[in-house]
UniProtKB/TrEMBL annotation:
InterPro entries noted in UniProt: AAA+_ATPase (IPR003593), ABC_transporter-like_ATP-bd (IPR003439), ABC_transporter-like_CS (IPR017871), ABC_transpr_PhnC (IPR012693), MetN_ABC_transporter-like (IPR050086), P-loop_NTPase (IPR027417)
Domain ABC transporter, first and last residues per copy: 2-244
NCBIfam families: ABC_phnC (TIGR02315)
Listed SMART domains: AAA
Annotated region described as Disordered, given as residue ranges: 246-272
GO molecular function terms listed in the Swiss-Prot or TrEMBL record: ABC-type phosphonate transporter activity; ATP binding; ATP hydrolysis activity
Xref: SUPFAM superfamilies: P-loop containing nucleoside triphosphate hydrolases
Keywords attached to this entry: ATP-binding, Cell membrane, Membrane, Nucleotide-binding, Plasmid, Translocase, Transport
Stored Gene3D superfamilies: P-loop containing nucleotide triphosphate hydrolases
Gene name of the record: phnC
Name used for this protein in its record: ABC type ATPase
A Pfam family the protein falls into: ABC_tran
Cellular component, GO annotation: membrane
Keyword Cell inner membrane: no
Amino acid sequence: MIEFQHLGKTWPDGTRALSDVSLQVPRGQFCVVLGPSGAGKSTLLRAVNGLMRPTEGRLTIDGIEFNADTERALRQRVAMIHQHFNLTLRMSVAGNVLSGLLPVVSTGRALLGWFTPEHRRKACALLERVGLDPRHLRRRAGELSGGQQQRVGIARAFMLDPEVVLADEPVASLDPKISRDILALVREAARERNTTVLCSLHQVDLAREFGDRIVGMRDGRVVFDGTPAEFSDERVQQLYAGAHWDDQPADEHGSSTVAAPLDAQGRQPLAA
Ligand SMILES: Nc1ncnc2c1ncn2[C@@H]1O[C@H](COP(=O)(O)OP(=O)(O)OP(=O)(O)O)[C@@H](O)[C@H]1O
């Protein structure tokens, strides 16, 4: 269980990114965090692996508070999947997957490629699990397509069988078909291990399809917390109302995936 208790964050320049965020995310839940640009989604996710230090409140994982003493041990239980994949493009696909062991294997050992046969077998099995043919193993990661790179990113994230996976807009740079495949892979890999997933997204349809739970954020606060069924078009509109056009998610045709604003009588207008 991840517990955010009255979490707040004010960046050194005075930007208030999180205000009084309290959430309990049970083990195994696929929790999607949605909200306009700047709502605080990434800041919230990064509290869970210590990349962001909150200025107020507490964060616990299974009752253990994240602090300087516990950080190292807790980090080993949390993996991350990034929007821009964050692979080492000159390194082989296999090397990138094996780098998921860095929290427990020394950097020197990793640089020298000293991985156990068991580690190598696991990397191969994970690559196969995410649908990458073994012939890609020795290719440089930079030669792969975006979708293939994110598959490598998923395999890397699951190398240590993490209890928590943070997926920060993992499909933002992928087309809709690949996005679904990628989220399905994350969901399946997480279910197989009872891994908790905190996933920030911009696409309402994907949030509804893949989330067990949707947390809507705005201006650093949680303004919606419920199931996809409860996340009605009206709720969507409330979450994004007033957001600038540039802040709103767009589908593959560039049109907004957010419900159009209601008219004065509260009716959905016809086509925009
Ligand atoms: N290092 C930083 N220093 C100062 N302000 C920051 C820093 N990182 C983020 N912020 C600010 O904190 C607020 C929340 O940012 P955050 O990246 O968490 O939002 P987000 O919801 O993930 O946005 P997006 O969907 O665009 O990624 C924003 O106002 C952002 O400009």
